[in-house]
Design brief:
Elements: H1 2-21, H2 30-35, H3 39-49, H4 54-59, E1 62-87, E2 90-117, H5 120-127, E3 131-133, E4 139-141, E5 156-181
Parallel strand pairs: 4-5
Antiparallel strand pairs: 1-2, 2-5, 3-5
Length: 182
């Protein structure tokens, strides 16, 4: 019974902080929806933050752009987002990102993510629809100049950019992707 009470209290706190953290974003407000809805707007936001990222767009064989990924957690967490996949600069399909994590985490946030594929083989693996980034894969939190020291690891380079919310996260998890051709 104590565990049920503790779990209920914990979930109540999570929802209280989640709604506070995401306050200011109204999904019914057309301006807010337009602001975060397209792959091109996400690409522009990444390039504006760090113009050096342009080299990844030039060197990569392809990339997956997630304009908004929502993440929440308290002990166990998860994230979800949908995106667009490009090969040689041309749109080739859509993708979903699902993440499960476990550890010391609390809160909710929204962020953008781009996964660059350094070569054709890695992008082809992604297009098979069963691609995963394990806990050992690291994403670069994009700030001005952050991409200068970044490089491809195991055929991918991952960049994220926080959009809003508040999340304390020291956890282990992995991301799983699906792909739907255009």
């Amino acid at each position: 019974m104590k565990q049920i009470i503790k779990a209920s209290l914990a979930l109540s706190l999570l929802f209280a902080f989640s709604s506070t953290a995401l306050a200011g974003w109204d999904p019914t407000d057309e301006d807010d929806v337009k602001e975060s809805s397209t792959a091109q707007e996400a690409i522009d936001a990444f390039k504006e933050t760090d113009p050096n990222l342009e080299v990844f767009f030039e060197k990569a064989h392809g990339y997956a752009v997630f304009p908004t990924v929502g993440k929440a957690g308290m002990g166990f967490g998860g994230a979800y987002g949908t995106g667009t996949v490009f090969e040689n600069g041309e749109e080739i399909g859509t993708t979903t990102l699902k993440q499960a994590s476990m550890g010391f985490e609390f809160g909710a946030e929204a962020y953008r993510e781009i996964v660059f594929f350094g070569d054709k083989e890695t992008l082809d693996d992604f297009k098979k629809g069963n691609f995963e980034l394990g806990a050992q894969a690291s994403a670069v939190a994009l700030t001005k100049g952050a991409s200068k020291n970044a490089d491809f690891a195991d055929g991918v380079a991952v960049f994220t950019q926080t959009k809003g919310g508040m999340m304390f996260d020291v956890s282990v998890g992995g991301q799983k992707f699906t792909f739907e051709p255009k």
